[in-house]
Amino acid sequence: MSETAQKIHLIIKRQKDANSDPYTEEFLIPYRPNMNIISALIEIQRNPVNAKGETTTPVVWESVCLEEVCGACSMVINGKPRQACSTLIDKISQPIHLAPLTTFPVIRDLRVDRQRMFDALKRVKAWVPIDGTYDLGAGPRMPEKTRQWAYELSKCMTCGCCLEACPNVNAKSKFIGPAAISQVRLFNAHPTGAMHKEERLEALMGEGGITSCGNSQNCVQVCPKGIPLTTSIAQVNRQVTLQSFRNFFG
Amino acid sequence: MEHGKYQHFFRKLHSLAGIIPVGVFMTVHLLVNYSAVWGIDSYNKAAGFMVNLPFKYFLELFVIFLPLLFHGIYGVVIAFQAKQNVGQYHYARNWKFFFQRITGLIAFVFLIWHVWETKVQVEFNGVEANYNLMAGIVDNGWMLTLYIIGILSCIYHFINGFWTFLITWGITASTKSQKITEYIAIVLFFGLAFVGIRAILAFA
Questions:
Q1: Among A134, A178, B62, B71, whose Cα sits 20 to 30 Å from the Cα of B16?
Q2: Residues 6 or more apart from A31 whose CB is under 8 A from it?
Q3: 172-191 in A: which are within 8 Å (CB) of B?
Q4: How far apart are CA A7 and CA A27, in angstroms?
């Protein structure tokens, strides 16, 4: 390929470390068919020279599975939060703008710390407790009909796109975000998980819980896994309403 | 109030208060106003019925002013907590979320003005609450425009708030039910908007 070969134009919002100010750097990298954002970033890593021809530091990002199931490579690509691995260069317009998610603290460049999401899962006890001092045996069976929609909710990879798009998840609000609420619905639907239903609902009735949702419904639009997040939120709203009646009237 | 374990209770109370009693009162209010379309006497009679209800001050305090103040002031707090992003996410529901907060703020200012002119002046300044009071206010084209903006904001805020109320309380969970209630909400909005605007024009 000659110098005149097709180039991919990337405009990346970078940040040296957690405390420094962000800056923008542009890159022109050689085009190959069927590239994704990750392979473009690998190209910069291989040859860290910016569009002005200056040698620079390689852009840092996070990725693990490369098949849109781990949630690690979420970033803002051309204004929308999505996975870098499943975003194909051939299918988006150039120049390509890359920026870290704004909801989470930036560690460096495109790498962010999604710890608040994992803390949220702990807060709502998004698991099925099965540990005991003796073998508890097989649990109750789950109806096939429930399993089918529960499987859809289980696809959540804690990627953070829904929190990024939510206008009520920000520094002024303690809103837990859509992902954890949907997980409450998932684990409350599980026959063994349902034994701890009240604890999960009580967690969502605390500060920054489910009532902080403002129904903008951006979450369901940006979810890369197509999870019916707004249905989950409304379903958990119903569970919370009934739970608060039980708490008060007995 | 906003922080700690009572947040959930106050948010739910805020959601409920917007419908019962504030929204219900506003609907009755708009319907009473509509009687102005049938003439001055008809309006004065309908307004007279409201003014002469027994336990008026008790009803006004607990059905109108306390719920309205709570809903309004807490609503302003909630509105400013959002980080609006309609520029980035142009989805219809996100615009509705944005307008819910904008119309809430407009309604807040409008109602302070409206209560000042038609309630405070009546109670403390000896102004008489009748057809002529309103006719005097909206005689000016600017005032009429501001009133129409205020009325439409209140109606949008109530109807969209009713739609989100159904979600917030877990009544409409499925995509289908949220879609159908959205259509119903659109019809109700235009219905109430017709009543409200037709009524205010009867004074102009």
A1: A178
A2: A5, A6, A7, A8, A89
A3: 172-173
A4: 9
What pTM value is reported for the model? 0.94
- The Cα of B176 is separated from the nearest Cα of chain A by a number of Å equal to 10
Contact between A95 and A29 under an 8 Å Cβ cutoff? The reply is no
Set out the domains of chain B in order of their start, with CATH numbers: 7-203 (1.20.1300.10)
Q: What CA–CA distance (Å, rounded) separates B198 from B33?
A: 9
Does A115-249 carry CATH code 1.10.1060.10? yes
CA B47, B53, B55: angle at the middle one, nearest 5? 140
Each residue of B139-197: pLDDT tens digit?
999 999 999 999 999 999 999 999 999 999 999 999 999 999 999 999 999 999 999 99
Query: A214 and chain B: CB distance < 8 Å anywhere?
Result: yes
Q: Is A7-112 assigned to CATH 3.10.20.30?
A: yes
**Helix (H) / strand (E) containing A10:** strand A7-14
Residue to mutate among B167, B176, B178, with most A CBs inside 10 A, is B167
pLDDT digits (tens, 9 = 90+) for B45-78: 999 998 899 999 999 999 999 999 999 999 999 9
Give me the interface pTM, i.e. the ipTM: 0.93
Ranges of each domain in chain A: 7-112, 115-249
